[in-house]
Every structure is written in C-alpha cells, then in structure tokens.
Amino acid sequence: xxxxxxxxxxxxxxxxxxxxxxxxxxxxxxxxxxxxxxxxxxxxxxxxxxxxxxxxxxxxxxxxxxxxxxxxxxxxxxxxxxxxxxxxxxxxxxxxxxxxxxxxxxxxxxxxxxxxxxxxxxxxxxxxxxxxxxxxxxxxxxxxxxxxxxxxxxxxxxxxxxxxxxxxxxxxxxxxxxxxxxxxxxxxxxxxxxxxxxxxxxxxxxxxxxxxxxxxxxxxxxxxxxxxxxxxxxxxxxxxxxxxxxxxxxxxxxxxxxxxxxxxxxxxxxxxxxxxxxxxxxxxxxxxxxxxxxxxxxxxxxxxxxxxxxxxxxxxxxxxxxxxxxxxxxxxxxxxxxxxxxx
Length: 343
Known about the structure:
Distance between the termini: 30 Å
Strand content: 35-45%
Shape: globular
Radius of gyration: 20 Å
Helix content: 10-25%
Number of domains: 1
Largest sheet: 8 strands, mixed
C-alpha cells in the first residue's frame, strides 16, 4: 500500500483553523501568565450524529504544545466546547467550533470563542457529511440559506455494498468483515453499517477516476495514523486509478497495523484520548487527486492552475500490512464519504 507524506498543497482539513484557534487562546493564556492548559471535550448537537470531538481534541493538544503551551490535565485553566453548523455573513452554512476557557476550580468563564471552519472539505468532515465537491473552488456551490445538514443532509448513493457521494462519483468506500462487504442501509438519508461488538473490520477505498487519489481515512474522528510510530508526518493513502485499496487497521509502522475492532467505549481508541462518548461512530474518507510532483503535466487539467503556489472502534490484534512511501502532489478535496455505525 502506497503512502505519501504531507504535501505542500494539502494539510489536515481541520488543522489550519485549529491552529488559528490555538494561537488566539495562547495570546489569552500569556496575558493571564499561564503556561499550561487542560483540553476538555468537544461535542456536537445530537441531531448531527457526528463524532469529530476526539480529532478536535487531539489536534488542539498538538497545536498547543507546538506553541509552547504545556497540555496538563491538572492545569488551572480548561478549554472545552462544541462544534456544529452556523450561518456565516453570506447566510451560508459553515462549520464552527464554539467554546470557552474556564477555571478548573469553580468553572468561571474567562474567554469565549467561535472559530469558523474555512478549509475546503473540512465542514463535511467535521459533521460527517457525504458530498461530491467541484475540483475548482471557484465553482463550489454555496449551500442555500435553507439547507439544513442536520435534517436535510445530502443524499449519498448506495451501489450494492459501496457508498458513494453521488451515482456519478468515481469514489466509493466499503466496510468489510471477514472478507465480506457489509451491506449499508440508509437511515434518515445517512448510510449506516451494522456491526457487532468484537468484530474486526477493514475499509476498502475505490478510485474509478482517471487519476490517482490521495485518501485520508478517519475513524470516530481519529486519523488511521493516530498511532503512527514512525515519527513521519503521514496523512494519505494512495489509491491508484481504477484500483481498490483495503486498509486493514490502524497504521503503526510500515510493517505493522492493528485491526479496527468494534468495541465498547471504555476500550475504544477515542477513549484513550479521554474524548466524549458519542451515540454513533463514523468512518470518513476524503478523496483528492494525486500526481507525480516531478511531472506537473500529469496533474488533472482542472488542477493545474489551482495548484500553483455505544460501540466504537478500538485497537485490535496485530495484522500484517506492507506499506511503502512515495512522494505525490495532492490537489483539492473532491469527495467526502462518511459511513456511520451504531454504538
């Protein structure tokens, strides 16, 4: 399986905005002469059926440490909050992270924030959306002011056991248990897969486009690389044009992975971070075009101008998986696909 390190053209979907948020909070902490902070939980409205809180918490912790703020669960101040959808100044739905910094003793609110999510495709990942995006950001349609992701989400397409953002989309994912694809069902317009505690599953990523795809895979808001032990900044799996790649589990090293295992919340990967328990788990894949950085002409034509400049998933048994690294240039997010499972 091919992996590619962080590209100059692509970054963590939520990280740029969470970095900005961490900077704002750091300024406040320095004014208060504080050098440490505890990072609490971030939750979503029940109607969204989202599970990005663990990912938000993990990235914020990393950003604080990078800014010289020590993350300490016993710190005098705590940052915590919520995430969801809100209208921006153009009356367009965007993702936001709302929150506050409070005193650990007494709960007094000292600082409040509302951080918009601006990076392409990040709102869809935040709320667990399934959507096909235009490759040219200038052509991305703005959501109607009446669009309600919670009650009227985009309708994904189910092609046998595959989940696609639209029937015409070249991208799809499958959940596989014991070598057999699990048939998803639609509930309120959202794809769900039935899974039981103790089962281990794999995720198949399919790319029927005319170019290679760089895919980010996250489980319950955590990257498949959350337990990466190589020290390298790995973010994407490469799925060649016309091919399917099966991800067997959490990436640990180039030779070792650990199964995606359906387990109870206390035993889950999310619980390892102290993130909140959500009713629904999520499996999210984001697809972008990928090409050889030494051959710009191999980029898709529409990228060439743009690219200038209850139950949860736990860490199961070891599983053999051979990965190797190759450099790719990565374009804009073209598709976000999310499958849910009941906890």
